[in-house]
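Task: encode each sequence below as structure tokens.

Item 1
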Amino acid sequence: MEKFTVNSEYQNMILFQLECANLTLQIEVSNHSGYWEWEYDVFGSRWYRMNLKNGIFFEKKGIKLKKIEQQEIKENFYEFVRQLKNDPKYRLKLLPKLDDEMRKVWNLV
């Protein structure tokens, strides 16, 4: 697994990407009227926009993923968050931007 990259960074938006064996993951953190929103995308055999609820990433449109796919996505996103958390440049930038759901994962990894 590679180290994450920053695809773009502006005052109100940061787009991170992580290349995995079979997947490419993206996390976009953007400010909407003072509220930081986290969006999660998975690119593999298909494109998925993911939601995060109670530490579980699931497909936003309600498409049922196979257990093995869901587990692979979860493990890779957790590694992604672990890398962000350990990065000296982005750790402090992201801490005040964490929403409740991401904070749970952040504290877990």
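Item 2
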Amino acid sequence: MRVSLVVFACVLLGGNTCLTARPSSMAVVFADAFAALGPLLSVYNAYAQYQFTGTPVNVPFDLSATCEQVTSSFAWLRDELACQSASADSAVMTDAAWLALDVEGFCVRHESLLQSLSHTISVSREILDVASGTRLFAAIHAVDDRLQQLMSDVFNGLADGCAVWSFAVTFSMRTILTQITLERIDPSLHAILYGTPDATGPPFAVPVGVEAAMATLVAVQGIDLSEEEADIARAAADVILTYLLSDDATCDAQG
């Protein structure tokens, strides 16, 4: 009932509580949801490595606080998607609402265990066995899978090439900016920014400063970044993101 009321209320409001109907705004909330889930995923990956190699599982995070952030981010994602009146897909809206509710339940259900795991240099085998027995790691993996599927459904439902490009670029820029340590930028960024791997500029007209910022990122993709290069990359990503979220962003094709 709670899920149905959330969806119904947002449809009834017609998007009045949303940030905006732009694909870029949806990309931001997805990027933030993945960033919030990051610490839990790192624990899941560490446990998977432990199973294969016996490598100690280190948890530097306060997982209880992390779970609060995950709950908040997924609720924001739910609300933003539910209020997208321009692309009111009831299946997507319902999936987002259920996911937010299930994540909230996950955090409540595993609260004491997450506290036990937090800030542990080397988690004991006993605690790992308890976590595995309560399906903590399986639940983390399931949340990640559902979030990826939800984003795929939203992405595949975008109306046109401009919306697809705006979503992909915004998601990439926000992801860069949410990384605590930026060591390397995936070489696939060229194709995301420019539309294809062989293009030499963005497929849609952007201000000169934004195009220069894109060229800056393309120049440092695929290499190990120094601290100075990482700072330059973050500044460039911020320029691009700010533009795509602004009212000035257009979809005029490059001449």
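Check on item 2: The chain has a mean pLDDT of 86. The longest helix spans residues 23-53.
End of task.
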